[in-house]
Amino acid sequence: MEHLSLFLNSLIMAMAMSAPYLILGYVAAALIKEYISRESLAKHLGDEGIRPIMNAVGIGALLSIW
Prior knowledge:
mainly alpha, 66 residues
């Protein structure tokens, strides 16, 4: 029973520590959806090949650092 209690306590602490980052991610996604046109996103991320994938990876990496 002690292991379960320790696990649940650690899980709740991890969720509480990650909550601000989740909220920041939702805010960033909402701002992108509101202020960047669909055509602009399709132009940069909608082609075939490796370049759109690398663009998406770069944008995602910058968002997590920011």
